[in-house]
Amino acid sequence: IGDFARFMKPKNFVAYLGLSVGEQSSGNDHNQTGITKQGNRFIRKLLTEAAQCFSRATSKKSKELKKMQEGNVEEVIAYADKANERLRRRYYKMVLGKSKKPNVAKTAIARELACFMWGMMTDHVA
Which one of 25, 57, 88, 120 has the fewest CB atoms closer than 10 angstroms to its CB? Predict the structure, then answer.
């Protein structure tokens, strides 16, 4: 990926990864397609597999995770916890609410995870 600052907004980063929604439009007709798959397939695959972990996630932190977070800035830890909780809740809402199929939900979570990563790497951790 290199320098995250070259992406002005998270949607630019998501488009670079190929996780953005495609569109076919003609005149007044706008049809959304699946993800564009234009970016790096290895990064896209890693993010999708990471998103799959949210299907088994709990809201509690393990001892190993707490140990790994020692010494980090509190703001970054809070941002990561916020991302973890939001993505976990969003996955369950999409799948258990019967609104999305599991693979579609995993891709949506991977897209949002990429946005959180962009925010962390560009100091947009508000």
Answer: 25
